[in-house]
Amino acid sequence: MSYTSASKVYKKNQIETASPKQLVVLLYEGAIKFIRLAELSVEKEDFNKVNTNLIKAQDIVTELMVSLNHQEGQNAIASELQSLYSFILSQLIQANLDKDQKKMSETRHLMSELLEAWASI
Predict the structure, then answer these.
(1) Taking a C-beta distance cutoff of 8 angstroms, is the pair 110, 100 a contact?
(2) From 14, 32, 73, 88, which residue has the greatest number of CB atoms within 10 Å?
(3) Per the structure, how many domains does the chain have?
(4) In this structure, is residue 2 part of a structural domain?
């Protein structure tokens, strides 16, 4: 089994056995990784990779948005997160259109803060 294949199997097992909290952490980590890859791709002027990685980050933020729990008692937190995710998503879209490394960095920083908050729960 090659390293790439073993890595994919490990990641698949990690996702399939993760708790809901761990899944959210994995999503944040993935979004941060893809935003960082997009930033590095801007430096290399590889705009196809910028686009690909930012779309992956956008997909993750969209998944986080649709998975929010809007049940009673959770509604205020879910609404705040919905607003924050909407902002991050719009920033990622604009960063992709403009290939704006500053917007990428700002959204990565926001996602890192959210990751820290989730990891500490």
Answers:
(1) no
(2) 88
(3) 1
(4) no
